[in-house]
Amino acid sequence: MAIRDYIKNAGLKFNGQLRKRNATNGIVLHHAAAQHASPDKIHEWHLKRSWIGAGYNVYIRKDGSVWELRPLWAVGAHAQGANSDSVGVCAEGMYHPSDTQTFDKAMPKAQYDAIVRVVRDLLQEYPSIRWIKGHKEVPGSATVCPGDYFPLEEIIQAVQGHAVAEEVDCMKKGDRGSDVRRVQKLLMQLGYPLPKYGADGIFGDETLEAVNALKKSINLPQDGVVDIATMLAIVDAVGADKDRLERENVQLKDKLQSTEAELKKALGLGADAGKLVTELREKNEKFASFFKLLNQLLKDAGQ
Ligand SMILES: [Zn+2]
After folding, report:
1. 57 alpha carbon to ligand 1 midpoint, in Å?
2. 70 and 202 co-located in one domain
3. Least enclosed by CB within 10 Å: which of 23, 115, 186, 252?
4. How many angstroms separate the alpha carbon of residue 93 from the centre of ligand 1?
5. Is the separation of the CB atoms in 12 and 43 below 8 Å?
6. Is residue 173 part of a domain?
7. How far is the CA of 169 from the centre of ligand 1 (A)?
8. Looking at the structure, do residues 143 and 251 belong to the same domain, yes or no?
9. For residue 88, how far is its CA from the centre of ligand 1 (angstroms)?
């Protein structure tokens, strides 16, 4: 079911013009920092801050009900620096320890399930979404929101099967997002047509077949996975500028090496940490080169 089919309109009157969001790259998760608050209450609080009204797009109560405060399509007021390109999702509750107010140490199951569902359905609604963050993880934010007792990691884990491109180092069936769309465009460019769905940003059976056909032609295992080897093969196939990519990788390696040294110094890490850092570095390198390849190829393919 699409989010539109179950989200309830809180019917709030905004005290000014709502602006349409031009890009939707992420989801920011919040808590209300209040154990009990109706959608109207949130609206009232935000009006008192002289905003045009409630700043969150979606509000999820402890009973699992899902409310649209600011319209889904509108620029929110919930996370400075991310308002223009993210959907703000807030959970009723005070999920952080406090000396001055009562707080919640655990999230009700109905609410947890509703949040996971909403995040999954938003990924479907906006295939361009590439990241999910807690408010406190938005660069430049100075907040504990959504709080230490908010199950942020569990929620992100639970939706990960529904792939956020940033969180995976390869693509497979079930993934969605702008990187899937790019790969689809490249497949078509290479002569593996997607007649039914085209570049829709959803890695379904049609894309899977095309990927396997490509992998067969280059003697790679037909496991349906777009990994680094597949991407490198695509680079060969479209004749991208490999020298330049290799040069850029060397620069990246240097940068990572100095970061590694700084990290070790800062954390006082011993020899045991070396392996971990090496693994991290390798993963980062693969990752960075992977997306660099995609961007490079995109320019060739035409967005
Ligand atoms: Zn917040």
Report:
1. 12
2. no
3. 23
4. 12
5. yes
6. no
7. 29
8. no
9. 9
The domain containing residue 64 runs over which residues? 3-165
pLDDT of residue 54: 98
Centre of ligand 1 to C-alpha 61, Å, is 15
The one-letter amino acid at 20? K
Quote the CA–CA distance of 288 and 33 in Å, as a whole number.
Answer: 37
- The number of folded domains in the chain is 2
Tokens of 80: 């400075």
Distance in Å, CA 77 to ligand 1 centroid: 10
Structure tokens at 163: 């792939």
Tokens of residue 228, six digits: 């680094």
**How far does residue 13's CA lie from ligand 1's centre (Å)?**
22
Q: Residue 178's pLDDT is what?
A: 77
Residue 146 alpha carbon to ligand 1 centre in Å: 6
Q: What would the pLDDT profile of 91-122 be if each residue is shown by its tens digit?
A: 999 999 999 999 999 999 999 999 999 999 99
CA 135–ligand 1 middle distance (angstroms): 5
Tell me: do 140 and 247 sit in the same domain: no
User: Ligand 1 centroid to 44 CA: how many Å?
Assistant: 16
Interior/surface letters 216-242, b for 16+ CB within 10 angstroms, e for the rest: eeeebeeebbbbeebbbbbbebeebee
Same domain, 73 and 141: yes
CA 219 to centroid of ligand 1, rounded, Å: 49
Instruction: Give the other-Cβ count within 10 Å of 18's Cβ.
Output: 14
pTM: 0.57
